[in-house]
Write a structure and sequence with these properties.
heterodimer, A: 169 residues, alpha+beta, Nuclear Transport Factor 2, Chain: A, 2 domains, 8-stranded antiparallel sheet, 4 helices, B: 171 residues, 8 strands, globular
């Protein structure tokens, strides 16, 4: 009986620890994320250069950065598909340069990146240009076996350029 | 144009094509067919620990295997997967610490390979077993993914877990 109780406690603990590391990126989360992105772009038409997702809270919280068509950078917080805060960030970014170089939609790049680490937690995306002007989407994941992984998807070809993962513990 | 097999019963007609398919290298394979037999054969030649294997030219036609013998000498052998028999081609330079290496390889290389196969499906190119500067042991695999990325995966030889991975598109 005691052995059974210990086994049950160990199982419960390992499940808790496992879930603390990663929660899977589901199609529902993908839809929620896309809703937030669309809402943010309705508020400030432009290019989403960054988003971070916290799926461990009861409501999905997404933080986004948008470079608007007038080169201003806006930082927004989205909860349940609605923008709850919207503030301007310091400095400007070239909307024209950022928007003209993307040949692949971010949502397509996202699906490619998720395919590389299926069943893991997707935590963020960053869109940037390399020093040569090459556009890329960098996605960050937290895998079930406690590794933090990044996947860089080319904004021109839509293919994975590079990946990196290492243990977080 | 009529081919020679016309007129034979259907099964007999298919036989040359089936044989041809069997003789061809297996497409979509991960290059490790026959590797375990080759490793076992290499260890029969010199009892010890395989510390490196490489798929020759990345084709899957043969393996180059290095084994650290109990006396610390490194022996290089070659093996064809079809035969599963390794033959010695020479001795590597220097002496390795067999006792430390074998004691720290708690997870079998085959199990580490299976872990890599699960997370990074593709064609295996190379495996290197080595000790880290901290004294831990690591299996480092090189895999080419189906979308032509060269991936390096490090597996902890004590826990069998992936510690680090890195991939880059082959230009």
């Amino acid at each position: 009986m005691t052995k059974l109780s210990i086994a049950a406690v160990i199982t419960a603990l390992s499940t808790t620890i496992g879930s603390a590391y990663a929660s899977e990126f589901t199609p529902e989360m993908d839809t929620a994320l896309q809703t937030c992105i669309d809402t943010a772009l309705r508020q400030h038409a432009g290019v989403v250069t960054q988003w971070e997702m916290d799926s461990r809270t009861s409501a999905l919280i997404i933080k986004l950065d948008v470079v608007a068509s007038d080169d201003l950078v806006w930082s927004m917080r989205c909860e349940g598909g609605a923008i709850v805060s919207d503030e301007r960030k310091m400095g400007n970014k070239s909307y024209k340069m950022l928007s003209s170089r993307i040949k692949v939609p971010e949502v397509t790049a996202r699906q490619t990146a998720v395919g590389e680490y299926p069943g893991t937690e997707l935590t963020g995306m960053q869109y940037s240009l390399s020093w040569r002007g090459k556009p890329s989407f960098t996605y960050t994941f937290l895998t079930q076996d406690a590794r933090q992984a990044t996947v860089e998807v080319s904004g021109v070809t839509g293919k994975i350029d590079s990946t990196y993962s290492s243990r977080v513990d | 144009m009529r081919i020679a097999t016309v007129g034979f019963p259907r099964v007999t007609r298919a036989a040359p094509f089936v044989l041809m398919l069997l003789a061809m290298p297996v497409f979509g394979s991960d290059n490790t067919e026959g590797l375990d037999d080759c490793l076992a054969s290499a260890r029969e030649l010199h009892e010890g620990l395989p510390i490196r294997w490489e798929v020759e030219n990345g084709t899957g036609h043969g393996f180059e295997i290095e084994v650290v013998a109990i006396d610390g000498r490194v022996w290089k052998s070659q093996c064809l997967p079809a035969s599963g028999k390794a033959s010695i081609v020479g001795r590597g330079l220097g002496i390795q610490d067999y006792a430390t290496m074998s004691a720290r390889a708690k997870v079998a290389e085959q199990d580490a390979r299976n872990t890599v196969r699960t997370y990074f499906p593709g064609r295996f190119i190379e495996m290197v077993f080595d000790l880290t500067w901290r004294g831990g042991a690591m299996y480092t695999y090189t895999v080419v993914t189906p979308d032509d990325r060269e991936t390096t995966v490090e597996v902890d030889a004590a826990s069998g877990r992936i510690v680090r991975s890195k991939s880059k598109a082959i230009d």
